[in-house]
Design goal:
Layout (H helix, E strand, L loop, with lengths): L9 H11 L7 E10 L4 E10 L2 E6 L10 E4 L4 E4 L1 E6 L7 H10 L2 E6 L2 H6 L2 H11 L5 E6 L10 H4 L2 H9 L3 E5 L4 H5 L3 H12 L3 E3 L7 H10 L3 E2 L5 H9 L3 E5 L7 H10 L8 E4 L13 H10 L4 H6 L3 H6 L17 E4 L9 E4 L2 E5 L2 E2 L33 E5 L5 E5 L15 E7 L5 E8 L7 E4 L7 E5 L2 H14 L2 E6 L2 E7 L11 H17 L7 H7 L8 E4 L2 E4 L4 E5 L1 E2 L1
Parallel strand pairs: 1-4, 1-5, 6-7, 7-8, 8-9, 9-10, 11-12, 12-13, 18-21
Antiparallel strand pairs: 1-2, 2-3, 5-14, 14-15, 15-16, 16-17, 18-19, 20-21, 20-23, 21-29, 22-23, 22-24, 24-25, 26-27, 27-28
Helix pairs in contact: 6-8, 10-11
């Protein structure tokens, strides 16, 4: 299924037409359904015929041929299109399949995914094979094509090459280029990025911005360069500014930016009362954020804020499909669309009691169906980490004059190191911890100190990072070493050690970045990690995002990267990495 270029083969389409003629029975009838018709923008009542994964008819007629048909009486439900999450980072400890399976249970049946980790962790041939394999999932998945690594890599021009970006943009599953975390380079004259934008536009694909705090002047410039949408509005006024410049605005509510209540309140104050140019996103939040659902929790916030229910549902379905030019497949309940439908108890409760995705039951009357399709990640080059090198005593030399201070979960600034740090165990009253970023192949390292992570952490190791390299943090060099060794034994993961004992660990056997566990299990593991870190002084809410963004150069002000300590605002390397 779906290994061909077209969504349905000619033979399948002929069968769909034969269902209308009564020569073939539908596989399912949703009878007496009151459903949201997105073109008419109102609730209508009728019958929905499904053949395998496609809606072949929606209207007042019932089929004559019901020989092999499941008939579902929908009199007690409202039906809405499956929700579409337009901005997914499907590598936040979870993997694309585990997140998709979890999201579908609460009605989010189509995902538009970031391809960054596929670029960094495997080759193009295997990455495209993963995309093809995931098409067999009950959840519909589309992708972006990144134009930069979101960090500073050694030899980045060979990692994200012109040939690679062009191949990704040409792929059928790619709906957009971006997100444009490297937009300052574009403003500074990077014509290669501009060329990629031009190519994406030539292919009728969108460009996703990443413009936090951008002025009206910058927003106008980026629109001229080709940006179509931005998800970084943090106030109602910023929503207004983006709408004024012609952007589609993605309203975000995420684990590090839970902005939606503020946005909705301030939009109302500004009398912004049209929603066709908006949709909703959770922006790749960490696992525990999704305990309350995925897009269903955002739709609920929108309805409770006073947004008309139909507009709220459109912001999670029809608006997204129309924007990405996939409304012939997704985002509405109508003839010809993929049969992804949510069954609701009431208009005000967007969490479905039953979910169809590609014509398959994900959940029926609250009972979840397990599907057999599982990706064999090692087959595509996403193996356990194999590190055949050891840390040496000389690797634990920390003589850097400048450290990194956290001001929240993800923003960091430089500070002058004034304490004596020549100890093997830093004094407990120091706010500082040792910090090392080390190449997963053991070729280089960068050592400094970090303030504000968790003052009483003794040894902490993580293979989860923006670049896939290894982070070590702690007061005690011996506990840091033990955490590193245990992380190696796991084949990748996050490990906390104290006084020679392992306190907590999260195995990440999929390339050292992703878990193979279900989202439900991973949520418990992440919550436990957050608790033990907070018990040891972590002051914020999202340590997983902290780990991710320590190397991410699209946020201010200073980062540890594969080229060294990097000054984001001035685009310079403070101190280069040390070759081992």
């Amino acid at each position: 299924m779906l290994d061909q270029r077209y969504r349905w083969k000619n033979k399948q389409i002929r069968e769909h037409v034969a269902v209308i003629d009564g020569n073939i029975s539908p596989t399912m009838i949703l009878k007496n359904a009151r459903f949201l018709h997105s073109t008419l923008k109102k609730w209508i009542t009728g019958h929905i015929w499904i053949f395998n994964d496609r809606i072949v008819y929606a209207g007042e007629r019932l089929p004559e041929n019901l020989t092999t048909c499941e008939v579902v009486d929908c009199s007690n439900y409202l039906l809405v299109p499956g929700y579409i999450e337009p901005h997914v980072h499907p590598f936040q400890l979870y993997n694309p399949q585990s997140f998709a399976n979890y999201a579908a249970k609460t009605g989010t049946t189509t995902l538009i995914n970031d391809n960054l980790m596929l670029i960094l962790l495997t080759n193009k041939k295997k990455a495209f094979s993963i995309l093809r394999e995931l098409r067999h999932s009950p959840v519909s998945m589309y992708w972006w094509s990144r134009f930069d690594s979101q960090s500073e890599l050694q030899g980045e021009e060979t990692v994200i090459s012109h040939e690679l970006v062009k191949s990704w943009l040409e792929h059928d599953a790619i709906l957009q280029g971006g997100e444009l975390t490297s937009w300052p380079k574009l403003l500074d004259g990077d014509d290669l990025i501009l060329h990629w934008i031009q190519e994406a536009k030539r292919m009728r694909k969108k460009i996703e911005g990443h413009f936090p705090g951008a002025s009206e002047k910058t927003l106008a410039k980026m629109m001229l360069f080709g940006a179509d949408c931005d998800h970084e509005a943090m106030t109602g006024q910023e929503v207004y500014s983006r709408l004024l410049q012609g952007y589609m605005v993605s309203l975000r509510h995420s684990s590090i930016r839970p902005d939606l209540p503020v946005l909705l309140k301030e939009m109302k104050e500004l009398e912004i009362n049209q929603y066709d140019q908006m949709f909703l996103t959770t922006d790749g939040s960490t696992p525990s954020f999704y305990k309350k659902g995925v897009l269903d929790q955002l739709i609920r916030m929108a309805i409770e804020s006073g947004i008309p229910a139909i507009d709220a549902y459109h912001m999670a379905s029809y608006n997204v499909a129309r924007y990405y030019n996939i409304q012939h497949l997704h985002g509405m309940i109508a003839t010809g669309r993929v049969a992804s439908i949510n069954f609701l108890e009431s208009e005000s409760n967007p969490t479905p009691v039953s979910v169809l995705s590609k014509g398959q039951w994900i959940k029926k009357d609250g009972v979840v169906f397990e599907h057999d399709h599982k990706v064999n990640w090692p087959e595509y080059g996403l193996n356990q980490l194999q590190m055949d090198w050891e840390l040496e005593e000389e690797d634990f030399q920390f003589s850097m004059p400048v450290g990194i201070e956290m001001t929240n979960d993800v923003i960091t600034k430089p500070y002058s190191i004034t304490n004596d740090v020549s100890y093997d165990i830093l004094p407990s009253d120091y706010e500082d911890n040792f910090l090392m970023l080390i190449d997963k192949k053991g070729k280089w390292r960068i050592n400094t100190l970090i303030k504000g992570f968790a003052q009483h952490v003794q040894g902490f190791a993580s293979s989860f990072s923006t670049t896939g390299d290894i982070l070590l943090i702690g007061k005690s060099k011996s506990d840091m070493l033990l955490a590193f060794q245990r992380m190696k034994e796991l084949g990748g993961g996050i490990v906390l050690v104290e006084n020679g004992n392992i306190v907590h660990e999260i195995p990440l056997p999929v390339a050292g970045i992703m878990s193979s566990e279900s989202m439900e299990d991973l949520i418990l593991q992440e919550e436990a990690l957050t608790k033990v870190l907070k018990d040891r002084g972590y002051m914020y809410d999202d340590p997983i995002c902290t780990l991710l963004f320590l190397s991410a150069t699209h946020l201010p002000y200073i980062r540890v990267t594969p080229v060294g300590m990097y000054d984001v605002m001035n685009k310079t390397v403070f101190f280069p990495t040390i070759m081992r």
